[in-house]
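Objective 1b of the project was to move from sequence-level analysis to a structural picture of ligand recognition. The entry below was assembled by the postdoctoral researcher (A.K.) and checked by the PI before modelling. It contains the amino acid sequence of the target and the SMILES of the bound compound, magnesium ion.
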Amino acid sequence: MSYGLGVDIGTTYTAAAVSDASGTRAIPLGRDVVVSSVVFATEGGELITGDAADGESRKQPLRASHSHKRRLADPTPLKICDVVRSPALLMAAQLRDAISLATATRGRPPESVVLTCPAVWGPYRREHFSEVPRLAGVRDAVIVTEPEAAAMHHSVERRLGEGEIVGVYDLGGGTFDATVLRARRHGMEILGTPEGVERLGGIDFDDSLVALVDQRVDGEITRLDPADAAHARVLLAVREACRRAKEELSAATDTVLRLDLPDGTREVTVTRADFERAIAPQLALTTDAFRRTISSAGLRAGDLASVLLVGGSSQIPLVADTLSKAVGKPLRAGLHPKLSVALGAAALARNALRRSPAVPAAAHRSAAPAHAVPGRPAGPPVPAGAPTAGMPVHTNPPAPSGPSAHAGPAGPPLPGIRPAASVDELPVRRRNFTAAPPTRSARRRNTAVIAAAAVTVLAAGSITAAVVLTSGGNSAEPTAPAAANGTSTPPASSGPLFLHDGRDVAPFHSMVGSEANWAGTALTADGKASQQAVAVRPADVNGSKDGRQVTWTGKGAAQFYVQNPQGRLDATSYVESGTLTFDVVVVKAPTAEVSLAAHCGYPCAAQLNATSSMRRLPIGEKTTMRIPLSCFAGKGLNAAAVDVPFLVHTTGTFEAKFAEVRWEPSGTTGSAPVIPCADLS
Ligand SMILES: Nc1ncnc2c1ncn2[C@@H]1O[C@H](COP(=O)(O)OP(=O)(O)OP(=O)(O)O)[C@@H](O)[C@H]1O
Ligand SMILES: [Mg+2]
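Corresponding predicted holo structure:
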């Protein structure tokens, strides 16, 4: 089937998505759906990308390039081991591998390719960027701005109304873009002048954290010499630890970094408050830029219907706090903050395809328009008012066990782009993407990865949408009697417990998430958490403060869930006749659909409709609900790798207390009757 390909080469991550008549979905470029934007130059001069480059760069950091997108059009030459490699050349290698992977997995090259660039880039940078598809041998790529692509994705998901004006706040790894767009029947119209901060993103927040940690270790990090290979490895590991810590702080209120420094191992605790203090001035720059772009369009914040939060760094809770104070408008976090640009680009690529004959992109001859924003693609309708929940972020994903090849793992090895002193000296490579069908085993491998991680966007009204995707494996079976904080002893006969005696059972954490922050807010030590649309506090169910009372305010889609951020739980032995069992007291009946879900790393997830079951319960009385795990398995749950065993979601108002959330093996006695799957659909 012909398809369009969207590729988002970000400063820190690269993502790709395909779109065809059956929908739009991300394609995994490695073990995860997104891969690091790192390029590694082998001694033979080949440029490798993706997971393979990531792995090699840890061993030989001086042969690797990170964040080169920021260096595009920079007059200072970018050198890897004394050889000049233009950023465009490095990005071309990334594009080449993304296209090769798409070609290998789909069995044919894409018919159209859309690439994205920051909206703040002027003509000079865009001209340099237009070298990227040329160097990759793609002759007819369309280039659109990242916020336009993200808004396109949003319009597919949420159906922006004709004429609706939205702001896009895109804070990624290296750039901040602020844009105001009006939805038009045939696409997006930019209003006013996009503003931004060219060198502001996640890597700067990583730097802030490195500086903070450096103070705590008395300057040991500053004393490292980046030109020394051993020190460079340490520095890379420190940066990596800071990036992870930063992401963890979006869900937790503090985190501990363990750093292996030349003078020994040091442990440093950083709180979210420390981190927020460090980055607050940078975030103030983003809101200033956001206000400027609104004024440049002759508008006021009140004229915006909403603000779309795009980019991985928009998951930092302080972003939503700062922005909602600044603009006072509803914030809509995308379902896939790191993927929405690629997904929107793919949808645009498919639109372009529907208007032109299906000829592989690599064979097109005419120059692409510099800027084209085709309209919203057709596809299965997203139900009005459909739930728009995202899956909780894996703040500390398990070490993946998937294929470790570079971004083009299928088929015969792809020849590298030759090193050259500058773009001008590069021979223009005309790759023929129709060649080299994948080997059967590579095809199987790719299919498996796709099956494990593709995101079907056009069905995104589902609660199972993911924000961050991790590969499976690393099952972690917390043997049942592991009680949280050693304060409670679960019944010996039970299966794994997730919530017991008012506490999370390690390694599970209770979280709330909503459109304001799908990354999720962890409960504080006193058992509380809140976002605009959902709040949780301790409550009495069977005894004193042994449960959690969750209040959905009706101010948007929101969820309460229990997640293991470190691994996956194997439920296979429970699936045949075991149950998800929990105590529930309905305080206020739900006014909208209530979904009950379990996740196993998106899109392996299953969602049941618990609306009537909840509505039937007597108000204020405790009931034990037992739901066969086979109902979840029947809806697509991979029971061998469950990371979220319990998730309740609604868009309306609802209030309930939950306690003793667990899996029970078959034959557990003394429990309430099991609810048939038919009552949950
Ligand atoms: N939960 C999180 N909390 C805070 N930051 C996060 C979280 N998840 C990802 N990030 C950060 O988001 C950044 C990556 O976002 P994204 O993939 O949107 O950027 P990019 O596309 O590589 O960059 P750009 O669009 O600026 O070129 C990284 O710095 C990453 O650490
Ligand atoms: Mg980006």
